[in-house]
Write a structure and sequence with these properties.
alpha/beta; FAD/NAD(P)-binding domain; Enolase-like, domain 1; 25% helix; 28% strand; binds flavin-adenine dinucleotide
Length: 410
């Protein structure tokens, strides 16, 4: 009689849930145990700063699977259960409370958690971060009351929260020490477009501005900014990035550096242990090492890791992709650009319907389509091929993008 194998997944969000689904799709008939610290079954986070936060979508819209899915597929979903320790030597995980669970293969999809400020007043009521559906519920209740919201950090989450709060009629101020929103990812030129979009919607943008303290009797009433000036407010959202949750792995002696280090098949330094999603810092054929904190990466790496757990893994080399919606401006970004020579545009950025390309040595590192749709495959082909591109044709809206990509792949 063959022993039933047990595959354990720690982290029951998008990467973990998709991995569990894939194990069953691929015909694995052993035990699948999906363990998550949150009380909810796996859900997706993008709506939490967008339609869910604005009250335009209900709870049912955020879940990865229907309620009955896990039981139907004999996936043992254990919510509100934290894994406290890993013991890779004996192939066991230890749950809070002491229960031990042996695994044949283990997937770590523990995600990331919001960075917090350590300045005075950071613990005051009314100072929020946004990661979980519970965070979004709390924030949504506050948005309903109106008033003045100060957003600290003009990254993706801060920008989306600012947009949603404006759409709900709040007064909104955004603070960031950099000179434009999203500067680290998009650079000054494209970040400037996002600054203008927020200004057009009546957001006060205090850029090049740091935050020194939050003040108030019990709840936040003021934000003290660099230079000593204070801004009255009713509510603060801090969106200053996330930190990968690597403690379990690190404490177990698994190699960690800006995330859990995995190879291109998502294998960690410990035998039979894989990692995927926001927590994984993966080797990538095109870009070297990458830790991607985006929905699409969790969606695809979870299944890729599951196939690896079954011994059917192949190198994960998808072109990184993410999207954002702010007001009536939707965008998709494909690729990964650091250290580009120039940004060129196809279409007029002022029209807010354009594609931006980040180029280095005449090659496309990344492309971002804004209110232009169905071009992702062509942009990704350009990024993947890495051949020198004809700049005039790239920026000419009359030349179909797929022709550029086809010409180069043929
Ligand atoms: C508000 C918001 C909006 C976003 N919008 C976009 C967007 O528009 N576009 C985009 O591309 N991306 C977006 N993202 C990013 C995207 O949601 C993440 O990349 C994705 O959630 C990563 O999924 P994950 O499964 O890797 O990890 P996570 O979603 O972080 O989930 C990890 C899970 O593991 C659990 N866990 C951790 N440690 C333990 C433990 N020891 N024991 C048990 N469970 C544990 C956690 O509780 C958590 O539920 C957004 C994120 C947020 C927060």
């Amino acid at each position: 009689m063959t022993r039933v194998q047990t595959f354990v997944i720690v982290g029951a969000a998008l990467a973990g849930a998709k991995a569990a689904e894939t194990l069953r799709e691929e015909g694995f008939d052993g035990r699948v145990v999906l363990i998550g610290a949150e009380p909810d079954r796996p859900y997706e986070r993008p709506p939490l700063s967008k339609e869910y936060l604005r009250g335009e979508a209900g709870r049912e819209k955020v879940y990865v699977h229907d309620e009955g899915f896990y039981a139907e597929h004999e996936i043992e979903l254990r919510t509100a259960t934290a894994v406290e320790r890993l013991e890779p030597g004996s192939h066991e995980v230890v749950l809070a409370g002491g229960e031990r669970l042996a695994y044949d293969r283990l997937l770590l999809s523990t995600g990331a958690e919001p960075r917090r400020l350590t300045i005075p007043g950071a613990e005051l009521e009314g100072v929020h971060v946004l990661r979980t559906v519970a965070d979004s519920d709390r924030l949504r209740a506050r948005l309903d009351r109106g008033g003045h919201l100060v957003v600290v950090g003009a990254g993706w989450i801060g920008s989306e929260v600012a947009a949603s709060a404006r759409q709900r009629g709040m007064e909104v101020t955004v603070l960031d020490p950099l000179s434009v929103p999203l500067e680290r990812v998009l650079g000054r030129e494209v970040g400037g477009i996002y600054r203008d979009i927020h200004l057009d919607h009546g957001v006060r943008m205090l850029l090049g501005t740091g935050v020194e303290a939050f003040e108030g009797a019990t709840a936040v009433e003021r934000v003290r900014i660099s230079g000593g000036r204070a801004i009255d407010c009713d509510l603060v959202v801090v969106g200053i990035g996330v930190t990968p949750r690597t403690e379990l792995a690190a404490n177990a002696g698994i190699a960690v550096e800006n995330g859990i280090l995995v190879d291109d098949r998502l294998r960690t330094s410990a035998a039979a242990v894989f990692a995927a999603g926001d927590v994984a810092n993966a080797e990538h054929r095109l870009f070297g090492r990458l830790r991607i904190e985006h929905w699409s990466n969790a969606l695809h790496q979870g299944p890729a890791a599951a196939r690896g757990m079954l011994g059917r893994g192949t190198a994960y080399d998808r072109v990184p992709y993410f999207f954002s919606d702010q007001y009536d401006v939707g965008m998709e970004y494909s690729g990964y650009a650091v250290g580009w020579d120039e940004v060129v545009f196809r279409g007029d950025p002022a029209s807010r319907e354009f594609i931006a390309f980040w180029l280095r040595e005449g090659r496309v590192l990344a492309g971002m389509n804004v209110n232009v749709w169905d071009v992702t495959d062509s942009i990704q082909a350009l990024v993947r091929e890495r051949a020198p591109v004809d700049r005039a044709r790239l920026t000419d809206p009359g030349t179909p993008l797929e022709q550029l990509a086809e010409r180069r792949t043929s």
